[in-house]
Structure formats: C-alpha cells, structure tokens
Amino acid sequence: MSQPSREDIENLIELFNGSDWEEMHLKTDSLEIFLSNDPSARAPSQAVAAPAAPAVTEAAAAPVAASADAAPKMGTAVTAHDVIIPVGMVAVRAPNLGTFYRSPKPGAPPYVEVGQKVSADTEVCLIEVMKLFTPVKAGVDGTVREICASDAQMVEYEQVLVIVEPDA
C-alpha cells in the first residue's frame, strides 16, 4: 500500500468535517489518523501504555505550510489545524480565539522554551482578546517539544499552541 499524500489526508479531514460522524480512526501500515468532534477525546492508545494523542476539532483544515508531498509518518495524529502531533505527546490548545503571546510583556523572556521542563501549572503563553489576557497552562508535567504559534500571531479556538512530551 502506498503512502497517502498530504492532499489525501486533507480530503479525508474535509469529508470527516462534513459528516455526522463523532470519531474516525484510520490505521494503515504507514499511517495512523484519529479524528474526533469531541475536543476531550483521545486517540486509541498504542501497545505501549503511553498517553494518547489529542483529538481533532471540528474546525476546517487550514492551508498547508509544508510541501505538498510531505505526509505524516506512522504514529502521528493529524489535527484540523495541520499540526502533526506525535503519538504520546500532549497538545496545549488555545482556550479561545485571540492573539498568542509567548511572554508576559514586550521585551520580557518567554514563558517557556523548547526543551524546558514544565509542570501542569506552568504558564506557557497568554491569549489576548479585546485587552483581556488569558494565561494558558501546560496541563501536564513534561518537557516542551514544540512551540507551534509565533509571538503576536492570531490563533483560533482549540488551535495547537505548544506540544509537550509528558513525563513517564
């Protein structure tokens, strides 16, 4: 079986978003995709007892930043915001639409950096909407593996902001 293209995966997400399905789990030899309309849903766990990947929200897929022939590798979950979340990682998502800020004020050091250890209570960023600043916490003890939004970038509700590898 050949590897599905990025376009195939985007079409699958669009079909899912247009359906009345609650969840979909597709697994092939080279790819695993879990889609759900429930933001609290978790992908089925792997053979190893590791935390599962976060679910896909109902939002439509955004334009792809990666090359057209790039496709997710086995053991990844694809979100509607085109961020590939490795299985076992936890996505910290935007609690609402707004502007993403990595630091508490201009010129201040960022809340977190890639490779930094965090606890569930660690603030990882701020989301601002109409001068109301909402701190976003990691929600899990672990290590920051990726920061998915740029400072001062507009983000959507449930968009992946930070990916954390939970402590074992």
Strand order of the largest sheet: 5-12-10-7
Dominant shape: globular
Mean pLDDT: 76
Task: Supply the helix-strand structural class.
Answer: mainly beta
Give the low-pLDDT segments. Answer: 45-80
Structural domain count? 2
> Total helix count?
1
Give helix and strand order, one letter per element, not per position. Answer: HEEEEEEEEEEEE
Helix content: under 10%
Distance between the termini: 34 Å
Sheet with the most strands, sense and barrel status:
4 strands, antiparallel
How big is the Rg? 16 Å
Q: How many β-strand stretches?
A: 12
Structural summary, described in words:
This protein is 7% helix and 33% strand. It has one helix spanning 6-17, and strands spanning 23-27, 32-36, 76-78, 84-86, 90-93, 98-101, 117-118, 123-129, 132-137, 142-147, 153-155, 160-166. It is built from one helix and twelve strands; from the N terminus they run αββββββββββββ. The chain starts with 5 loop residues before the first helix and ends with a strand. The protein folds into two domains: 1-88, no CATH class; 92-166, OB fold (Dihydrolipoamide Acetyltransferase, E2P), CATH 2.40.50. It is globular, with a radius of gyration of 16 Å. By secondary structure, the chain is mainly β.
